[in-house]
Amino acid sequence: xxxxxxxxxxxxxxxxxxxxxxxxxxxxxxxxxxxxxxxxxxxxxxxxxxxxxxxxxxxxxxxxxxxxxxxxxxxxxxxxxxxxxxxxxxxxxxxxxxxxxxxxxxxxxxxxxxxxxxxxxxxxxxxxxxxxxxxxxxxxxxxxxxxxxxxxxxxxxxxxxxxxxxxxxxxxxxxxxxxxxxxxxxxxxxxxxxxxxxxxxxxxxxxxxxxxxxxxxxxxxx
Length: 222
What we know:
Elements: E1 2-6, H1 13-24, E2 27-30, H2 31-46, H3 58-66, E3 70-73, E4 76-79, E5 82-83, H4 91-101, H5 104-118, E6 123-127, H6 130-134, E7 140-145, H7 148-161, H8 168-184, E8 197-200, H9 206-221
Parallel strand pairs: 1-6, 1-7, 2-6, 7-8
Antiparallel strand pairs: 3-4, 4-5
Helix pairs in contact: 1-9, 2-4, 4-8, 7-8
Catalytic activity: CMP + ATP = CDP + ADP; dCMP + ATP = dCDP + ADP
GO cellular component, one term: cytosol
Subcellular location: Cytoplasm
């Protein structure tokens, strides 16, 4: 069984999807982390004076993506064997992720990897277009959302927990820009699937959201 959980940044989909997978005994696939890995790898290369600029060179960015071996191990995100779980969550990566997310061939490459990982197992997968593009035939599709202010506050708290102090205004501005980019992109556009159940998480505690999600999954499975 494939359960897709899509939604905008800060809606809580990553943490809820991870918890839901644990409760259900399913595997968990963090697709957003895969795009962050490609972006992180590209940023690392921009720090080399001899490297071509990947942001203005789509072919170069694709080459970087093709060199990214992305794995998940007990909650950690590994990029070519290195733990980058924290490194891929920086504001700098967030500001540049659109270059990977908007690149059709990068998306195609990562989509193929996502389907390969999901093949033959029960899995909860989260992202922006899992229910619409990657797994259109998934048995259960959920779209988590929340108001921009609530999502920005959650993101600020997440950054603070990892030791990064960022003003709420900066987080909100980055988030609003990314929301617009996600809604307008030609491939992988952020939107609920026609058969997705939409859950607004404003005013809900994480355990309440989790129970709603689990209820939807169980109803779908029966």
